[in-house]
Amino acid sequence: MPVARLTLIAAAALALLAAPARADETGLVSAQAGQPPLSDAAAARKVKRSSFEPRPANTSATHRVPTKAQLSAFHRQSDQPYSHWVTGRFRGTTDEVMQWAGAKWGLAPDLVRAVAAKETWWRMSHVGDNGDSFGLFQVRRPYHCRGTRICGLFRRDAALNADYWGSIIRSYFDGRRRG
Q: Which of 170, 128, 117 is nearest to 2 (CA)?
């Protein structure tokens, strides 16, 4: 079951990962249940910048952001409780994108890195065995996106992929996850 797989991976990472300083035992750094995520700009300020790109093949995806029209279409089709905060509005290296998503959603950066390593070895081009999951965090069709245009965003935009995954994990933490 795809949602169960994501839940199992997240739960295992939360249970087994030694979280960095200032994170609690769940891997959450600053999240308070029911509190909104950090703004895109505030999360960006927490990123430790580096010119090193660990996955050069991801460069196009890590420097792409969705247009307002694309975001609007995504927000209209999503039934996830925190999708209205998902923007993918960040550009940087693969690691910086993961730091940004973690900071935005209150997740320890090492947790985010570990899940992406387990899912795809940080390869944005990774497609799951059945062809219905894609990107750094293996966003799945039809559970997370419907239609070629919306699903294509998650295939081509690393920050949107990571941002959306962070919103799902946060919704589990807050007890708001649907499905």
A: 128
Polymer length of the chain: 179
Q: What angle (nearest 5°) sits at the alpha carbon of residue 134, between those of residues 74 and 162?
A: 60
Q: How many CB atoms lie within 10 A of CB 70?
A: 17
pLDDT single digits (tens) 9-42: 544 444 333 333 355 555 555 566 668 899 999 9
State pTM to two decimals: 0.80
How far apart CA 146 and CA 154 sit, in angstroms, is: 11
Rounded distance between C-alpha atoms, residue 67 and residue 9, angstroms: 31
Give the Cα separation of 77 and 100 in Å (integer): 24
Cis peptide before 56 (omega within 30 of 0): no
Helical H segments across the chain, by residue range: 2-16, 40-45, 59-62, 68-77, 94-105, 109-120, 148-156, 158-173
* Partners of 107 in the β-ladder: 28
Least confident of 37-41, 114-118, 151-155: 151-155
